[in-house]
Amino acid sequence: MSLIVTEERSVEIVWPTLGITVSATLDDRNAALADALWQALPYRSLQGHALVAGHHLYHVAPVHSLLHLPAAQRVDRRTVPDGTVFCSRLQHLGIKYGPLTEPMPATPIGQVVPDDVDSLMEAGRAIWESVYSTKKPIVAEVRRAGRTSGHSLARMKATDPAADALISDVHAETSRIWLEAPRELTELHEGRIASGAGSYGTVVTTMLFVNGETRPLGYSTYGGLVRATVEGMPLEALRHMARVLAGTPAEFLGYCGLDTLNAFTVRLMALLDRIDSRDDFLAVMAHMALYVNCLGGWNLHLFPWDLDTCLREFRGWA
């Protein structure tokens, strides 16, 4: 039996360093997604800001099931009111706070209360400065209204000992870097690249390619493998697709400095043939997805986006 979302399901989204709290009410437009978020509360996450779409906030939500839960209603994000709250298969909790340009279908789960929309806009502007220029991380706390804050990352289990050991190590590393930038990425963004990656001593090129490989590895490869598992793809085909899709990007990212990710991937490839349970396969891929999505969030925060001050959008279209 699916749970019905009621008006009593109120959440608070808090940015402690900004001194801003907004309240939102979950609704029944996508009840399965809203319920998954509700059951995962409270948690904390590095707050991000859209870099292409416009006035939109998002962060990685530590909710494994967001990768595969079905959506009952999709909307064009550009057309909905400011303060609309979304959950997505990219494992994001997002909030629209102003004009958007990207025509992406999105799955709404609630709405910031009208009295808090101005505060949401204030938070959005401050978070943009954090991501674009200052690089001072801002953490979002999401909790049930009237409850205390807290944080934990759920750990799935596998019956195969080697698979469960990999899950344990990936979970521990994800927990370690969830609110603290990974050393490998901070060194990369400081120009310390042990392999020498970056033609003619360039650094921005390597940072750009790392970002370009990490995001689809989490969103499409591991997120896609989770969805394919839930949707019934045969296990042998799942193993084959994991080998085809995950190995090469991880090897390249290891060359660029993400040694931990590459080491996890090597272990994963070595144990694929012994995973004979769909539940085990799902658990491993879900943890890899969350880990890589966490890396992707830090990549987006650390990248020096203000390099574009010398290259601004042409506004003279007829």
From TrEMBL:
InterPro entries: Cucumopine_C
Domain Cucumopine synthase C-terminal helical bundle: 164-302
Protein name in UniProt: Cucumopine synthase C-terminal helical bundle domain-containing protein
Organism of derivation: Nonomuraea endophytica
The organism's taxonomic lineage, starting at the top: Bacteria, Bacillati, Actinomycetota, Actinomycetes, Streptosporangiales
